[in-house]
Amino acid sequence: MKKCPYSAQREQILAEAISPVASELRLLDAADLISLLRFERYGNLADLVASAAELYFLPGVVNFGLGGDYKLDWGGPAEVTLDLEIKPQGVTIYAKLALAEHYAGIEINHIAFAKASADPDENTALLARSLKDARYVIHGEAAHAF
Questions:
Q1: For residue range 90-119, what is the model confidence (pLDDT) as tens digits?
Q2: Could you tell me the superkingdom of the organism this chain comes from (predicted)?
Q3: Does residue 35 fall inside a structural domain?
């Protein structure tokens, strides 16, 4: 995605929202994720992503996007990248989730607003609201503290 002045802010909003899902996925063995990518076991990857996401988001909000990549060198750290499709109400986000031993990161490839405003700040606020509304809530607070 061509970066715009709002890209960093939107990626930060998405990173905060998706962080518990990334943490769940980082509990999986990197070798298992790599083998599933290498042998194109996308259904299995979709199930793993759905299982991690169902703890924090309503069904169908966070989905595996049928692709990914990995970096694995002799003696070096492994990094797995998974394509995600994130669909809170009114927004569709295509992103790459990078998972490594000690961190995770997200990069938005494309974002589409169902009813985009001419004001980018309103679109960014809609993104934040939609992601918040798509989360499970316990006693008025998000299920996972950041």
A1: 999 999 999 999 999 999 999 999 999 999
A2: Bacteria
A3: yes
